[in-house]
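Hi support team,

I'm opening this ticket because the web form for multi-chain structure prediction keeps timing out on my end. I have pasted the exact lines I submitted so you can reproduce it. The total is 626 residues across two entries, so I didn't expect it to be a heavy job. Is there a limit I'm missing, or should I split the entries? Thanks in advance, R.K.
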Amino acid sequence: MNVENCKATRPSQPLSPQNVRDLFASVDAFLFDCDGVIWKGNTLIDGVPQTLEMLRSKGKKLVFVTNNSTKSRRQYAEKFHSLGIPVCEDEIFSSSFAAAMYLKLIDFPRDKKVYVIGEEGLLEELERAGYTGLGGPDDGKKMVQLKPNSLFEHDMSVGAVVVGLDQYINYYKLHMVITCRYGTLCIRENPGCLFIATNQDAVGHMTDLQEWPGAGCMVAAICGSTQKEPIVVGKPSTFMMDFLLQKFQIDTSKMCMVGDRLDTDILFGQNAGCTTLLVLSGVTNLSTLQDPSNNIQPDYHTNKVSDILKLLE
Amino acid sequence: MNVENCKATRPSQPLSPQNVRDLFASVDAFLFDCDGVIWKGNTLIDGVPQTLEMLRSKGKKLVFVTNNSTKSRRQYAEKFHSLGIPVCEDEIFSSSFAAAMYLKLIDFPRDKKVYVIGEEGLLEELERAGYTGLGGPDDGKKMVQLKPNSLFEHDMSVGAVVVGLDQYINYYKLHMVITCRYGTLCIRENPGCLFIATNQDAVGHMTDLQEWPGAGCMVAAICGSTQKEPIVVGKPSTFMMDFLLQKFQIDTSKMCMVGDRLDTDILFGQNAGCTTLLVLSGVTNLSTLQDPSNNIQPDYHTNKVSDILKLLE
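Hello R.K., no limit was hit. The queue was backed up. Here is the completed structure from your submission:
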């Protein structure tokens, strides 16, 4: 018999002076997404530092879980410091770090190389985990000419391709990861080549004024040509949660995931068994949340992170 | 009551000295795909000129239907001539031409512009149809920097985006077509902006030695960020068939579509009611054709176009 879960999804509750107290009392760690939650581009969202400071002063653990793979943990810690927020590397779980941890976990051989569609931070995390990354910004200016009889040379020792947000994406890189009849670097023709995606976010707020194509754009390009699906290490996959639990040893039912995106942040929180809070300061607005076609309902929603502080006062 | 079509698909028959005569007798026009059928890169596939010459001499119409949008009809005619095959522009139906014809058909206003992810041939067809194309190779070297407070300027008069194979694809172009909060050039935020794909081929044989990322790669990148589906004017859409019928006035049951790709060529032929012949000189091999997971069966298959000539002798 086919038993379906027919429980209706409970609509999200607006955060209120009443329920914020229950939330606060039941949670030992707050997990924050960054883009659209903490900042937009290099601009902090109003009231964030005071709210984080209050949470820390009340003994809450703070963790930052971001799908943006362009920076390493070290670079994120620097960014937090430059914005006047004291955060240490251990509190940051970025999808760049997750990609490196995934390779470590599966004992990916250190004598094989990793081709990267992505930026500096992703290469740095791979290097810190002991791997050799190729591609990245270095291949951003390379061109490939479709001349007759032209054969594309590949590094034979590449055993994995990692795809994240890359503002230097080009045809050269797409070709590198997609197809080569003679090398091992080849998702399409070599089933042994790993295809890892840091995340699949459609768009991001890489600057404070506009949306920009996200890693989902690059990943879709690869899927479109290889017709293979990647291993996704970023949200909504709970892969990062295992590392987070090792570090903090707090039951996920005592965590609250705070994010601006339903299909990554809120789904990640729900998949891991956390309480979830959607903030409307990023890519999701109230009408999207309440649209009948949306079937991802967080426990709570509010305009921005600092509402926690305001409502607790 | 839900009535499903349960007719089992008849497995493809290898072309033989017997059935090739039936095929030849029943068909007034042969429709040929080009890449992987007529040529690979700039190299003709063995026996093609003699076969085409024989078909013409027996009064068969020859038509060339290609999803490769990098060339215009004029440029394809030139390529045929340079390879020693007399083909005129009217016999060529390329997806670059189809994209321009689509805009004409819907009376797309001539004072609006068309942003192009694609190459020279696509721009040329748009221009010949009276439209102004932007982007293309000209934007291939442009870069976009994700700086805080940076705002991307868009041409406000763009009303359609056409996406085809583009070896100069970059983040600048992806951003141009995906998102702009302030302009009309915006598939993502402006429902009025048309999103047209020349085709969705995953890979192509742009050179004779390797497979290369196809237009499907670029189209998927846009879909991945916009989460919208394009209007596809190339095969397997039968959009081009209407123009072909206007020109040749032959019933589709009297046509045979010859191609190397199941999900474009053969499906196109079947959708239009043609007889279909798969040649194994391109992207599809016999084991793919006969794999139980493949549900697209042509009427016939053979190694290459010149088998028609050989088997008729």
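A quick check on our side: DSSP finds eleven helices and 16 strands in chain B. Let us know if the file doesn't open in your viewer.
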